[in-house]
Amino acid sequence: MIGKEKALEILKKALSYSQADQTEAVLLGERSYLTGFANNYIHRNVGSEDYQFNVRVAFGKKIGAASSNIADEESIQKVIKDAETIAKFQKDNPDFVSFAKPEEAKFDSKLGYAESTAECDAEKRAIIAKKIIDRSKKFGFNASGTVETATQEFAVMNSLGVERYAVRTVASVKGVIMGDTSSGYSKESNIDIDKIDVEKVAEESVSIADKGRNPEPIEPGKYEVILTPYAVAEFISHMLYLSLNARALKEGSSFLINNFGKKLLGDNITMFDDGFSKLTIPMPFDFEGVPKKKVVFFENGIAKEVVYDTLTAYREGKESTGHSLPQPSPYSPYPMNFIMQGGAGNVDDMISHVKHGLFVQRFWYTNVMDPRKLVITGMTRDGLFLIENGKITRPLQNMRFTESIITALNNVSEISKSVKVVYDMAPVSVPYLRINNFTFTGKTEF
Amino acid sequence: MQDIVESALLSAKRAGASYADVRIVEQEVEEISTKNGSVDALKRSYTKGFGVRVIFNGAWGFSSSFRMTNDEAEKVAEEAVAIAKASSMTKIEDVSLADIEIFQDDVKQSVKINPFSVSLSKKINLLLEADKLMKIPGVIVRSGSMYFLSEVKTFASSEGSYIKQERIVSGAGISSIATDGREIQIRSYPSSFGGDYQRKGYELVEEYKFLNNAERIAKESVALLKAKPCPSGVMDIVLGGAQLALQVHESAGHPTELDRVLGEEASFAGTSFLTPDKLGKFRYGSDIVNITADATIPEALGGFAYDDEGVKAKRIYLVKNGLFVGYLNSRETAKKLKLEPMGAMRAQSWNFMPIIRMTSINLEPGDKTLDELIAGVDHGIYMDTNKSWSIDQNRLNFQFGTEIGWEIKNGKIQDMVKNPTYTGITYEFWRSCDAIANKDFWHVWGVPNCGKGEPMQTMQVSHGVAPARFRNVKVGVLK
Asked: Are residues B171 and B31 in the same domain?
């Protein structure tokens, strides 16, 4: 990787070449490795190191952007020149006020960094994969999955005085166990690969596949459900870009419009974003260099606030909450460390409270049917079970659900104390949920 | 360039690789997006690097770098071999590749108007003029976008392939989102999610005549707010091309990818109901359903001259007269099933290992006109332009939503309906297809964002389709 000193030196150089009123330079680097396995052997094993050197310049309210994956002297000058040329052809953006203004913030630039992840080699990844494969073989299954490590560098500098650098690591181990009639899923993510309990991943994914053998069909309809954190994350993630940000307010997709201070979700629902929380893969600042602020979306069901980047904040005379994506982005701002507060239950107790319902290990291929009402459709996958009189009794064939996130979060009767980080591009930390009247609308053949 | 190729291949060989290939990719992209009368984003990006894929001790390894030096090429090749060595710790059998013809070639792409030679102000002005035409009461978000790509890719293998290919891609679209404070409705042109994309120059943008269509879609987005909800029930549907393209994509393209079928994508994308025992035997659709994979269609987004294993582009049948007859494959998966490699291996860029991807997957045209399709429906819905999609991991149960629909009664188009949706099981749906519009209605739609693989790769693919009619489909999941 490049390291703090070199990264900031590149950005400083970029600023020095710019003739613009304001200039922002960002260097994003990632060294990533993925060991993929399927049919009980490693079939894909890849490594990559790449950088994105992004520049934005502003002449008045005209903004231009350019980027390159090469940050040598010649490229730096070319990227600055390209951004300047683009800006000159631009029309004014009336919403633009300024790039990020500097603010005091103290944090450890290695807050989310673990040496063990950064140094993990191909052999160590293969040993982890083999543990899951070996467990799967004992049950006559085919193991699939991934062992991933990434070291990510973030450096931001602008002509107003912002200067930030951080490095973090992310490791994930996933098992998807395939049987003739069933499948099972488990995934753990952590900044430190040595803190991932590989045996637990193997155990959970294999045991779900084992319990899921010979599933029976069930008719669609309304069911009480226990959703694992995997299912909860897949379901409610759509809310993050459709509702919980300032862009969604302006563009009309958010159900929070004109509803702040009102109780929109159940009393037991509290959700927030916190880049410094121990419940997430931490990130001290955003891609404009603004330090992360804790943003509470819902407190006991009452709508409180949403996330902002500089464009959406400054135009309203507010401060950015530190939630910009790499700019320019049509999806910014975005909650990058979403957390749903845990409750008091544990999953076994939650199951014991269900008289007739379903246990959903995972949802898959979800998509939005109605953005304002947050109606989502998708399939169950890798484990669907019937719960009768407080016990999981038999495996079921997969079904399609079509349900509103708002409705579902008004029907939550129990929340687990434990909150799990589900990492897929960005961390989403959520508990198990028990939800009444969850709507299933179709079925499939397996 | 040649130095890097030679250094990587020699280094891989020295380290003991039995096979190696190198891809050097250089991509330049220009993206423009406008929103509500101003330029939302305007960006030029550039990437260049190389990836080395090796087989060592019968297992795969891949590594890549952006540092374009001979020393780095040697280092990356060595790392690819070290990674392959680790892969072999779990090996069950040696990787084996089907034989292919070896080519040395230099493929250029000619376009009428090089999109990078057109001034930014001309592009911006066109989008902002379209934006202005969409500014009518009720419309809350007016947006437009253009995308241009110039790519040069060099592929070389230890078997002697040396192929350089050029690609130029253009894409553009506009959309209007309307609200009445309670709901939002969207209309797009010429298709949703960024419009249409083809291997063409700026002429694509001019052909689409955005200024003739901007006001119409704005009015439609507002009209949808007051339109009646799509009825629910089992009825006939006619799908327009922009929607049918995605239906083909999800229910014909993905399930015929042989890596999925063999379980290699089980960890993420899933598997497929089209298992090898069904090849040549399974009735996928009605007799009139013919689906091809054709990378040779000029200007199609999913087309090319050679894939990323150096296999020359081909046209094959996936479904012939309703029977499932073919797979999209790689050299490795073709060998496993004793099939001919058909050239479907592609990688997003230099830093990704190629995987099986759709090329241009096409529903071949039928013999009807659109009016004839509609005239044959007593009660049903004509739906077009995709709004949402979802399908299970075996590619059986699907549910789609479209931006707009019109009720059909007694063979005639009637009222506009909002939030149309339909759902079904793939083979039941295609078996219910009883009419397809003719070649005059056939168009190859570009889909620029097909996601697959781990690490996730985004691929540009395409689908040639004409509107088609389906009988007895479950319509209207939303109440």
From this structure: yes
Domain that holds residue A408: 215-443
Dihedral angle, C-alpha B463, B469, B471, B472, nearest 10 °: 70
Residue written as token pair 């934005």: A56
Rg (CA), chain A: 23
Per-residue pLDDT 10s for chain B (479 aa) are 789 999 999 999 999 999 999 999 999 999 999 999 989 888 899 999 999 999 999 999 999 999 999 999 999 999 999 999 999 999 999 999 999 999 999 999 999 999 999 999 999 999 999 999 999 999 999 999 999 999 999 999 999 999 999 999 999 999 999 999 999 999 999 999 999 999 999 999 999 999 999 999 999 999 999 999 999 999 999 999 999 999 999 999 999 999 999 999 999 999 999 999 999 999 999 999 999 999 999 999 999 999 999 999 999 999 999 999 999 999 999 999 999 999 999 999 999 999 999 999 999 999 999 999 999 999 999 999 999 999 999 999 999 999 999 999 999 999 999 999 999 999 999 999 999 999 999 999 999 999 999 999 999 999 999 999 999 999 997 54
Report the amino acid identity of residue B91: K
Instruction: Say whether both A267 and A326 belong to one domain.
Output: yes
Q: Name which of B47, B63, B397 is nearest A400 (Cβ-Cβ).
A: B397
Residue A188 and residue A233 in one domain: no
Q: Which residue of B has its CA nearest to A176?
A: B267
C-beta atoms of B392 and A398 within 8 A? yes
Pair B334, B437 in one domain: yes
- The residue range of the domain holding B466 is 229-475
B-interface mutation test, from A75, A79, A91, most B Cβ less than 10 A away: A91
User: Which residues of chain B are within 8 Å of residue A328 when distances are taken between CB atoms?
Assistant: 33, 40-43
Residues B241, B215 share a domain: no
Please list every residue in chain A whose beta carbon sits closer than 8 Å to the beta carbon of residue B46. Answer: 67-70, 75
**Domain count for chain A:** 2
Give the pTM: 0.96
Closest to A293 measured CA to CA, from A76, A33, A105: A105
Of B465, A326, A300, A298, residue with least CA distance to A309: A326
